[in-house]
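For the sake of transparency, this paper describes our internal protein records without simplification. The remainder of this section carries one protein's record, kept here as part of the documentation:
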Amino acid sequence: MTDVRIRVDVTLAEPPFEQVRTQLAGLITSGRLLPGDRLPTVRALAADLGLAANTVARAYKELEAAGLVETRRRAGTVVASGEHTADVAVAALAAKYALAVREAGLDDATALDLVRSALRSH
C-alpha cells in the first residue's frame, strides 16, 4: 500500500471530501502516485484523518468517476492504469469552475468570457 500524506483542515470552507479528492487527484496527476498504486482503505484513511468513512468514500467515488482510480474486489482502490494527462487535471478544474459559476448565478456567456479573458492574460 502506498504511503499517502493528506491533510484536512475543517476550518476551511472547502468540504473535507473535496479536500481529500483534490489532494489525491493532485498526487495522481503529478505522477507521485502511479498506475497500480494502492490507496488506503476507506476506513483506514477516514480513521487517520478523523473523518467519517462516508466522507472518504465520496472522495474515492468522485476519483473513480473521473477515471483516476479503480476499485477492485480483492485489491481495493488503486490508481487507474493509463496516462493521466493534463486533460484529466484540467477537466476536473473545469468541473469545479462550472459548479462555482452556477453557485454564483452567472450565465454561460459570462462564464466563457471570464475564461477567454484569463486565457488572453496568460
